[in-house]
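## retry 2 of 3
previous attempt timed out at serialization; input unchanged, resubmitting
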Amino acid sequence: MRSPFERSTWTHVDDQGDAISEQYWREVGPGWLRKDSPNINEAVDRLLDARRPRAAFFAVHFALADLETSRLKRLLQEIGTCDAEQAGTYLMDGYHLSEGFDILQKRTGVSEEEMARLEFLFIRVLEHESHGISNLEKQLGKSPALFVQVLGLLYRRHDGGEDPPEWKVANAEKASELATAAYRILANFRRIPGTDDNGNIDEDALRTWIKEAQVLCAQNGRPEIGDQKIGEIISSPTVGKDGIWPREEVRKVLEECGTAQLAKGFQIGVYNSRGVHARGEGGDQERALAEKFRTWARQLAFEYPYTASVVDGIAQSYDRDAAWEDSETAVRRRLSH
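## retry succeeded, writing output
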């Protein structure tokens, strides 16, 4: 097993018979192959046939650009689905995995649907890497049915009905894994349906997607959580061409499709988008935010009354946050004296 990890060794092993060859590929510790190595594709084939996809990735992670397309696709698929390798061996870093996805996405003959399925397998890694889950987001934004199925992996029905058979997962451990993946997908799904690659939104496509998603959520016993998640998805911080938030396409569709639960989700999306932030004492930051949203609400009130009420609700929440921060600051000051 200490012979060089190259074709001359593999040929010699093959000459010893099938049993020795199979043992070699089950046990060999592969070395790194260089970008100019002529053995890259063969090494991947052999290790994948031995059900060692992580070992294969380790061997070629510096030469992924030289790996043939079908093999790169198979490699990523089997890393995400094969459980034959011992836990803790050949751990992969997210950077090179993300790089592999970037390389594959640029190849001809690889569809958006294929990329989306692969992204689903690695969402817990890709959500923190540059590649992200762009194809999965696009697929969700095109298919309300896929969105509702993902929702169904995480949230139970509230009407006592039965989900479609293809949604059911008998294995409890697998069901838990899928629920975790569904949570991460919904947490990272921030591409507004109907959005093209230039950031433009097709208002009709957005309206159709939301209405179809609402119908499917109701049919599958999840109307309230469905509206909440839809609200979170469309709460993008992008302002309209007139400088008012939310942008024109979103506010127009909100007037038609808005519900109390959708408004709740919309507000949650706004709070979550604020993220971690530095702050001083008191609630001045929250008061400034409240005034910003209240100004937008006033500007929207005549033409978009529902949207204005949602935006004003955000302003009121920041008013409450400001009062709480003032109170906390006052308490800390008293305790420090």
